[in-house]
Design brief:
With about 60 residues, the chain is mostly helical. It is about 50% helix and about 0% strand. It contains four helices and no strands.
C-alpha cells in the first residue's frame, strides 16, 4: 500500500504503473532528482494537490 510518508522515487520504482498518475497531475517525478528525497505528502502540498485523492489514484494504479 502506498502511503503519504513514502518517498516518491521509491513509489515509482516499486509500482511503475503509478507513473501515469503522476503524469496526469503534471508531476514529472520520474524525471526529478528530488523524487529520491521527497515524501509524497510534501510533493502534494508543494503542488497544492489533495493527498487523499492522489493516494487513492496511486493505490488504484498500483493495484494494492
Amino acid at each position: 500500500m502506498i502511503t503519504k510518508e513514502m518517498i516518491i522515487g521509491d513509489i515509482i520504482r516499486q509500482y511503475p504503473a503509478t507513473v501515469d498518475v503522476f503524469a496526469r497531475y503534471k508531476l514529472e517525478c520520474f524525471e526529478c532528482q528530488i523524487a529520491d528525497l521527497e515524501t509524497l505528502e510534501h510533493g502534494a502540498k508543494f503542488h497544492k494537490l489533495s493527498i487523499e485523492q492522489l493516494l487513492q489514484e496511486l493505490n488504484a494504479a498500483a493495484k494494492v
